[in-house]
Write a structure and sequence with these properties.
There is one protein chain. By secondary structure, this protein is an alpha+beta fold. The protein folds into three domains: 112 residues, no CATH class; 139 residues, Signal transduction histidine kinase, dimerisation/phosphotransfer (DHp) domain (Helix Hairpins), CATH 1.10.287.130; 153 residues, 2-Layer Sandwich (Heat Shock Protein 90). It is built from 16 helices and seven strands. Strands 2-4-5-7-6 form a five-stranded mixed β-sheet. It has a two-stranded antiparallel ribbon with strand order 1-3.
């Protein structure tokens, strides 16, 4: 605690002494208080309200003389270590000695009157009755106040608050010629910068226009190239697709033609059993052609976007069971065991017509490639949290990895007779892929040659 932040003897001298040993009281002390008077500082230290106080020299002696304190109750910091050994001084002190302020005038007193009063005070002899009555020795005038000036400079206090700093105005006054040159150059730079900025903006605008035109042209070229590639791909696909259709139509129509030719030309020479066999062949050939045309029409509608979907929540197990019943005649003809392992309440979000087409094609395909007396298993499980995976597994003819990778491509036709030499339509798996993807699902196959295959497709569990 100190009397006031501006008192020289009561605080500034202590501040400078602390600073000289590397202590910043405003940062290193927990707090600094200013009480307003030396007596209140002494009282606060005496009562233990603060840890230490700073007062002017003689303040403690006067308080002791007045009976307010006992000097023995106080510890004077730094008194023994520095000044007691080096100088004889009649008062207690902790800092270097500074000259006092012998004379001061109030702001409303003129300099002339103050000067006359100062001369009178300095002329009073030591034995004057006024000095003796006031217990003063007389007035003294210090030889130099530089020690005070240096202290205020070190603390950067009072008139030296901005010591070491040069203001902009002062710098301009001291270096007016250089300042004028710098100002002139600065103005020239500003004007040139403004001119260059405007020109640069015009260049940027022209550049942006050119870049936009180039980008538009580039986009048009890319779009044309994209459409060109698309048309080329569609043309190649069309040729391959027609090849598939021609191949798949030729086999049943060839059988149909051969059977009808034989019936027409050798009907009377054929036995009843031979005639029935030929009629059965005609029927199977016509059924294959019909199935191919049905799939072809359905696929064509899908390509034109004419097939609308109306997905809802359905019991998938029930739909699978209905399709198994529809195809039971085919399974019975080959004595195939078809097992449905799906749980009763397998619910999925699908279009019922698309789902029926998918499951019918996969079961028919399995019957075709399963040997007489074989087995087909249909099952389901949760797939990636929000999907149900439905699998159709059979133990008949399998496929190589090369064939599996190309199964769902329109540009690839792999026609393999069934275990009873059944003919396929060629479009069943393409329809399955198209319809599964319309319902946000995926389809794939897993197979091993000679051991059978598994076709798997996914259906959403919930509405997307």
């Amino acid at each position: 605690m100190a009397p006031d932040s501006s008192t020289f003897a009561g605080w500034l001298t202590s501040w400078e002494s602390l600073k000289s040993v590397g202590i910043n009281p405003f940062e290193d002390f927990k707090s600094i208080q200013f009480s307003g008077s030396h007596d209140s500082v002494i009282k606060a230290v005496k009562l233990g309200k603060v840890d230490a106080g700073s007062v002017r020299t003689s303040a403690l002696e006067l308080a002791d003389k007045a009976g307010l304190i006992k000097l023995s109750d106080f510890r004077i910091i730094n008194q023994d270590s520095i000044y007691k050994k080096s100088m004889k001084y009649h008062l207690l002190l902790s800092t270097s000695l500074y000259p006092g302020w012998p004379i001061a005038k109030l702001s409303h007193v003129s300099d002339e009157i103050a000067k006359k009063v100062a001369v009178v005070l300095l002329s009073i002899p030591p034995d004057d009755a006024c000095l003796i009555a006031g217990n003063y020795s007389g007035w003294i005038l210090p030889k130099s106040y530089m020690v005070v000036t240096k202290s205020l400079m070190d603390l950067k206090y009072g008139p030296f608050l901005n010591y070491g700093k040069i203001s902009t105005v002062e710098a301009v006054k001291q270096h007016w010629f250089v300042s004028s040159c710098i100002f002139t150059l600065l103005m020239i730079s500003i004007v040139l910068s403004f001119i260059l900025y405007n020109k640069n903006n015009k260049i940027k605008k022209n550049k942006n226009v050119i870049e936009m035109a180039l980008n538009e042209n580039k986009k048009l070229v890319e779009e044309l190239k994209k459409h060109e590639n698309m048309l080329l791909e569609l043309n190649r696909t069309k040729d391959k697709f027609f090849s598939i259709i021609a191949h798949d139509l030729r086999n049943p129509l060839g059988s149909f033609k051969s059977a009808t030719d034989l019936l027409l030309n050798a009907y009377d020479t054929l036995t009843e059993q031979e005639r029935k066999q030929l009629i059965t062949l005609v029927k199977e050939s016509s059924e294959n052609v019909y199935a191919l045309l049905e799939n072809l029409l359905t696929w064509a509608k899908a390509q034109r976007g004419n097939i609308s979907t109306n997905p809802e929540m359905y019991n998938l197990n029930r739909l699978v069971s209905e399709n198994i019943s529809l195809l039971s005649g085919q399974t019975n003809n080959k004595n195939i065991t078809l097992t449905n392992l799906m749980i009763d309440e397998t619910i999925g979000y699908c279009d019922v017509n698309l789902f029926n087409t998918i499951i019918r094609n996969l079961i028919s395909n399995s019957i075709k490639f399963t040997p007489t007396g074989g087995r087909i298993i249909i099952d389901s499980k949760i797939h990636e949290d929000n999907f149900i995976a439905i699998s159709v597994n059979y133990n008949g003819l399998g496929m190589t990895n090369d064939i599996v990778e190309k199964l769902f491509r329109i540009d690839f036709s792999h026609s393999t007779p069934g275990t009873n030499d059944e003919k396929g339509t060629g479009l069943g798996l393409l329809l399955c892929k198209e319809f599964v993807e319309k319902m946000n699902g995926t389809i794939w196959a897993e197979s091993e040659a000679g051991k059978g295959s598994t076709f798997i497709f996914t259906i959403p569990k919930i509405k997307f």
